Sequence to fold (650 residues):
Amino acid sequence: MTRMLLKLSCAAALGLWAGGGVAGAQEAGVAKGAGAKGAEESNVRYAPTPAGFVGTYRTLAADSAPGGTFRIGVLNEFFKVSNFLVSGDSNTRFTGNLILNVTPIEHFETFLKLSMQSNENSTSSPKLIQVLGDMTIGFKGYFAPIPALTLGASTQIRFLNSTGEASFAGSATSVLLHLLATFDATKLARKFPLRAHFNFGGHIDNSDNLMTTQISSSAVYRYALRINETSRLILALGFDFPLPYVTPFLDWNFEIPVTLGRSNPNGASAFPNTLTIGSRVHPWRDLGLFVGIDIGLTSAGTLGIPAVPGWNLLFGVTYNFDPGRSKVVEKIVEKRVAFAPPATTGIIVGKVTDKASGKPIEGVIVSFPARDTARCATTADGVFNTFEIAAGKIQTRVAKSGYKAEDWDVVVPAGGAATLTVALTAVEPPVVDGGVRGNVVDDAGKPVAGATAELKAPGVDTVNAKVDEATAAFAVKAKPGKYTLAVSANGFVGVERAVEFGSGETVLLDFALKRLAAPAVAATSAQPSGGASVEGNRVVTKDKVQFAGNSTRVSPKMRASLDDVVALLKANAQIKKVRIEAHTDNRGGPKRATRTTQRQADAVKKHLVDAGVAAERLEAKGLGSSKPLVPNLTNRDREKNRRVELVIVE
Fold:
């Protein structure tokens, strides 16, 4: 029988080897959805074990091969030892397993296994005892909470042949249940060729129901017929190292009896305890060759508990099938390709920035003085892209108004692009004198004889200009900046205005001078001075100083009245301080009214200061609608309340 099983194993191996050779010759494709690497992984990682499921050899994996694939395997064991079951014996055992393992869908695996065993012991009669046709089926489900970790559970149901009969013994059917975990370091970001597997489960072993009165209960017969008295808890830990053509593995398997019906004089030293070392070799795609050895760690045996030999040789062959794998058919196709002539032109791309700030410059002109080539300009982000230019060296000018132009020699590659980055230096524009021009007239609009215009500023030489007595025109020129322009004439009230002009800029200003009253009036006399006079503690004008609505612009009519105030204040130096009070009606809300009247008071003060009144003699105050002259009932009443009053403070 042993020779027959060896022949079957060898025949299966040769058949699978031949099948692998044909497949290798005909299929240049790879595993479905996995590529060449996926095909190699299906060989290295996923092969059935003697337990039926995929794993190392004695330890089950919590994962499986891709859905729609299946595997077959012939896995064998052999040992020959002395003093094994009874003192002085010589025991030889050969075990063969034929396995069909299927992953019909992702996350689910099933298998069917047929087992046979031939055991020969020198002390038994007959010496050779065979067990043929034990069948096991199994189911496993699993999931991956994270890519590198898979968890699962499995069940195996063993149908044992009746002793002396060609049928299954239902009462001897045994069940194995496992919880599974697999950690796969090859799926980490930094891949490492290591997979670790942990199993915890139980074996509900009913094989003792095969015992009959015709069968000896000796340790030899029990071992040869696979009959045990006890169910067991199972712990298993396995490691495999998936390298390109070989996968070494290491297993530790430990079983704890829980239902032994007799005493165990040897204690834990009789518990099945095995260390397995081996490797799977993959000479061709999908073909795997097993070789390894069990090392028994159990030091003593007890009747009813599975015996463990000191060593056990492992060998076998597996083959993986993927019906959905793509096949690559090589086909030689002749194709005529038209070659384009070599390129003779290229382009220039680049960017232009301000050298000081680093910001892009828009509108820079890129031109080519030595060639008749179209110019281009930079965009808002400072980038430019030329048209096709004949390959070779070309003089390139980068220029923009306000910047120093740059000239570059750029080599344009044929069929490519040259890159040019330029930082332009800003050029300060030339400073050109600006000035003020205008007319000076009297109350009647006639030229003022002997009038002069004087442009002055701190630290700057004063510039004088005479007013033309015939045309009343004047003009003064100076460097750009802020100045005070003073216009004066004998017998007239002088006027000063703040003025500012830039390079080459001319400001237009006209002046109407008031004749001086003779003599000047004291502030307390309330006598008129031109069109303005003092009444009590107030300076009053001939025409009411009033803004139009919420406007803050000094109108020409207001300007005439305010010029009268200027004349009065210049003629009455004893008036030290005047408060400009701006009022409005009750429309628009208190806060808005206060803001508006403050701006109006500031506008009046600015006009008076520009006309030559010292700023320290003036105070601006916006009072909003807080002090109406009359109730705000009609439009006429509201108009009365909109006013500017000049109050003498000291």
User: Anything to note?
Assistant: The mean pLDDT is 84. The two ends are 137 Å apart (CA to CA). The chain is about 15% helix and 40% strand. The longest strand covers residues 128-146.
